[in-house]
Fold:
Amino acid sequence: MKVTETIDLGNCDREPIHKLGMIQNFGALIAVNADLIIVHHSQNVVDILGRDTGAGAGTRLNSVFPEAAIRLLQKRMRHDGDDRLAERLFAIDLGAAGRLFDIALHASGELYLIEFEPHDPDAFAAQLGTLQPVMANLEHADSVTDLCRRAAVQVKAMLGFDRVMVYRFHEDQSGEVIAEARETHLETFLTLRYPKSDIPSQARALYVRNPFRIISDVIAPPVPIVPEISLSGEPLDLSDSVLRAVSPIHIEYLQNMGVGASLSISIVIGGKLWGLFACHHYSARTLPFPLRTVAELFSGMFSLLLERLLQRESAARTQRGREIHNKLMARLAGGSGLAENLDTIEAIIGDVIPHSGSSAYIDGEYRTRGKAPNEEEFLAIAPTLNSAATSKVFAHNELGAIIPAAQAFADRAVGALVIPVSRRPRDYFILWRQELPQVVNWAGNPEKAVEYGPNGARLTPRKSFEAWQESVRGRSAPWLDEEVSIAESLRVTLIEVILRLTDQAMQDRASAQQQQELLIAELNHRVRNILNLIRGLITQSKGEAVDVESFSRIVGGRISALASAHDQITKENWSPASVKELVLNEARAYLNDGNRDRLQIIGDDVLIAPEAFTVLALVIHEMMTNSVKYGSLCDSSGTLTVTLERGRDNDLDIHWRERGGPPVKAPTRRGFGTTIICRSIPHELDGDADIFYKLGGVEAEFTIPASYVTTIPSQKGLPGEAGSETIDSTHNQGASDDPAASAIPQHVLLVEDSMIIALDTEDSLRQIGVSIVNVAGSVANALSVIEEDAPDMAILDYNLGSETSDPIADELRSRGIPFFLATGYGDMSDRMDETGAMGVLKKPYDKDDIAGALAQMAFG
Structure:
């Protein structure tokens, strides 16, 4: 028999168990190609139709089915790309002496599979009308457990099986019966756990693909497919078949349980297998196709209800997190430290996240409450905790299994919910749980899920399904997803508390001095960046000027645009600024009150974050300048329309439309102004920019990512300006500035998040003699360049907005590639030593500085 799919039962030395090319004997199957010629059929076609069809490979379908049925099948063959979705036909005359049939039709590769079985005229009508009251009953469920209990009762009443179970998968892929409806004489399986080997991973994937599996008679022999191999030389794929047989191992599994017929219906949430409806009958039971279709419809509707209920519970968790936040912020308003308020914190979160003790480790100070490790024991596990992610809660109910040092305090705490509340050094707030000896009821011993048996070189399912109890020690009660979610919210709250307390503490003398030094360093960095930016503007603008006067006007206009943009974002303490005001400010230089109507701004105004506002300001300046010089605003009749709208992902789309000016001609060369328009937003903001030179007027499309956009009205808070450590830069005094005196690298990686500075530095490198310059504006882009084509040398702007160049430096150092740090901050010699940099370029740096750095690299 030909194998069509392999199902792995886990780690075993025996050969895998295969799903055979067979179907169940209560229906028949015919496979046809595009010309409707039979190329496969099951041996019970004759029995089902009640007449000799003579069907076999190469047989015309019209010798099997009447013409009317063939035309109907042709009409229903799907061509919409979703070949796995079966068409359903009911009460179809197939020329079998007055008998009617139900048909499932779907594509399998180049073939269409026609599956048919006798029609039950009463099944569909009897059950379809019950679906609405059934779903109405489920609507009243107030929890997942209640919903599953109601669903089990309804499915049993609808399908008539002796037992209906709702089976939910856990994170370890074991399953548990969480709801059950059964005949009174049957023992209960409720709360029993089943090991993950009962449903292998490939079988789970198949349950997502084909959510319905029926076995009408466990002891009935399956019917083989004849012939086994199609004309194309491939076995028939029955993955989506409604009649497909199942593995003999699964049949033996059911026989060991005394089951005569079974039905499984998948519960799929978010594209993943959440659980199953498992229906057992203790004698053979053929479920009519219409009734199975109603059951599938019920399953889909149930999944939607379940998903809605899960989302409702998630929203409730979020609300509880908000309540905890509000209570903590109100209780900790006195200004005392976090460690001193363990009692207050525990009183608020104790009912929401049960625990037996807590610890706080803040600024080297360790405090505990309840059952918790002492300071020495905590410091022993701290290095391992420090290796975890800094921005994520860590939860484990058997800490000693992953951190051996935690076994020293297992008598007091074995489970931990670790909430990091800082970066470096690591500070933590931790909830502890004591050991909770557990008894897990398994459906048979999970350690003996399989044993060798009559299948020879195969595996036989375990035969004992009596409840088997396992005592578990060394573990606490598990941390629920709901509790971890609340802890994530708590982490944000505690960080806010710490930051607020830090701000208050900075009122004393020592903190004031530290803040002053920080502000000076930040100011120094910003001034150097601005100087470097202006120098780049001057250098890049030379090619556009014809004389000193025009050069002064071009550069002055661009610097004025930057100054105006900085005025807008600094007048309210570095806050987001208005896009409409930006456009109007730029237009005021060219439009007076009498012709102000030539500019129209459409759409709701929005605020742009400071780190993006200056970029947009330069782009708008260049667009407005071009319009005044060559476009719709260069005469007295043209108009300009700027439309603001939010895109599908909540990005800001800016549509620039000029009309009524002179005919437009596309520029013959790309100047620096055009470069600013086309490359600034994509390079620095990861947005989009397109300009179109249409005869009737210039059009442009700009997209600013949603992360930089704030809707009006909304509370204006301090935008999330990236605060990262920076490095002082020093010119390499004494090094030779003559490029000829040093070995010039052929390939340089330049990491710089300001496009203008990057362009200027790129020009300097090429003037020195560098052949290839790859420019990257982020860590991810830089690492991609290194992976694809490693450079000979690199220049890294240390501060890249919300990230630093540390990961890039680590990768370069591991590959032995020399690099220099570029920064506008103060003394950064410590970072140079830590990163392994050859030296530091202080902003604003120029070609001579770069040449000196290359000379330093050449002479070591």
Remarks:
- Residues 1-19, 455-464, 714-742 have pLDDT under 50 and may be disordered.
- The two ends are 72 Å apart (CA to CA).
- The CA atoms of residues 422 and 495 lie 7 Å apart.
- The domain at 739-859 is CATH 3.40.50.2300 (Rossmann fold).
